[in-house]
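Appendix B. Raw example, untouched.
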Amino acid sequence: MTMTTRVRSVVLAGSALTVAGVLASGCGSLSSGSSAAGSSGSGASTSASSAPAATGSTTAPAATPTTSGPTSGSGAGASPSTSSAGTVAGAPACTTGELKTSIGDGGGGAAGSFYSLIEFTNTSSASCTLYGYPGVSLRNAQLALIGAPATRGVAPESAPSLVTLAPGATASATLKETDYTVYPTSECKPATAAYLLVYPPNQTQSVKLAFTGGTCSNPSVKMLAVSVVVKGTGTS
């Protein structure tokens, strides 16, 4: 409200003060109502979607990985991997955006299993850290989860340890995938994967990698296992 004339009488001045008081009281009530409403709401929780890998006839990822957020409705087991490192001094955790995530050679396969490396390269200008297990799962062309996400542990394996990555340095986790043809068709329920979805350790943003091959869609058949992240591009 804009005052355009000077108040000329005491009565008018008194009236103006009275109106101002009423307005101030009303605004105060509205402010209190807004605060109460805001404090009573509950924060939204982040629902992450997946984690990721391939099978017997597998081709290495072809395209540059794209970063995507969590996808809802993929099942509790497909959520990002979290591993508490406790209180650690030094460099902060590597975020998904600071890492180039790719698939490397894991040394072939043996006894019905195939091995590859999930590699994380620090593309930022500062050191960062990785600790624990990535979240890994196979996806179809629509990014729906196929089968069960990767379980933790690939022998031989040591306990998780903090890995510090200088700019340009690489760490890796070993991915083990079982040959789906060793299972009866009725048990396996074969399907074809199109992508590997990877969450770097303790991150809620995923990376989608092209990863084509046959696998089992039956979640009771554990096709994938992933190791802890270690420095370099070797097995732990």
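End of appendix B.
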